[in-house]
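Model it.
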Amino acid sequence: MADYVLAIDQGTTSTRAMVFDHEGKVVSTGQLEHRQIFPRAGWVEHDPEEIWRNTREVIGQALSRADITRHDIAAVGITNQRETTVVWERATGKPVYNAIVWQDTRTQAIVDRFAADGGVERFKGTVGLPLSTYFAGTKIVWILENVEGAREKADAGELMFGTTDSWVLWNLTGGTDGGVHVTDVTNASRTLFMDLKTLTWDDSILEVFKVPRSMLPEIKSSSEVYGTVESSNLLREVPIAGILGDQQAATFGQVAFEVGEAKNTYGTGNFLIFPTGTEIVQSENGLLTTMAYQLGGGEPHYALEGSVAVTGSLIQWLRDNLGIISSAPEVEELARTVDDNGGAYFVPAFSGLFAPYWKSEARGALVGLTRFVNKGHIARAALEATAFQSKEVVDAVDADTGNPLTELKVDGGMVANDALMQFQADILGVPVVRPVVAETTALGAAYAAGLAVGFWKDFDDLRKNWQEDKRWEPSMDEDERARQYRLWKKAVTKSFDWVDEDVQ
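Modeled.
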């Protein structure tokens, strides 16, 4: 009997393959970064073919490092950066353009065009989302309108669209030789095209966007066998049995299945998901209504989500653009050289502001500067920005649900930063809890796949695996918490309304 499940985590900055055992422990990992392509200000792209090459290579790394073969793998799960849009030729498998990344803001004019009739919430009652550059739908439109020949090929049924889960799955299952063109409900719910009630593509919205239905993948549940890996791959004949968008996967990995069992992921951006069960809750406070998961033919489960565009990528920016640190972990050491932020507040609206503001025209602002401020204060302000933005999202969840959080489960790469986690507990006023396996995104994809093939029996089987690693208790007094949050909110207003006709 196979002893492991392998998860492919196709993320914003890298692709990983991770092997998990029945206890949910990491057995081995393979990981490769891919290029971040910035053709213009506000444009962010990836090379889909590089992502696919890296996927094949990291599978080999993970199997080799665990000293196992395909016969030891019960199933494969996929999790992915959501909204990032790939359009490729059905006959050749060649992308017609680079993948347009979720952070990309080039489609603002398209958003404005569709919002002219009914506003940005025009389709929200159906799809749970406002019109925004964030989601895949406007990115498809941009490709069809700006890539030579794309519109004609799409209308002729020659093009395929997918978020990166669909791109990886299609290639893993054979590509042009019988590749499976599928996505799951969680990724479909991030396109602007899926009806949350029926879990089907909405033809009336597709007609507005002028996107041919023939481009779109079939929508499946998050946990079922979609196909098997093709014969030339090291995982040949292994079933691919789970797909979850990265934030839903992290929630699944945190075994946060029930109403109110929220988690916050600290990655390229920050994403808080608050499950609402089988009820669709429309936010009045800037959150998104989204899918949480669906298992096979079971009932769909929904969630509220607070999406923050720039958190971990701000630390990358300090490293790559400013050069004040040489590696991401150094930011904590630099931040500890000072006692506080020196009055500096950093609003990283590099891609506009997501939840709870949804202001695409906002841009980054570093405010409160004096000659006293040094690079240590800037490092601290960058870390604090992550916690402040999460505080705003938690406040929105509290307002929408009337169910204040009593503790916050956290995961993702940044939760290794003790200074950040302590400040997060301080500014929230509730404990912050990190599990033993902090990279829960890949674990959630493994769980979804394993459930589909009987590797794990049920949710109780998964809950047994969750273990607390560390807990941070709030230590900041209420007056200081209120003062700092007030100054943060003031700083955020300085980022508003920056982009206009003369500024891109």
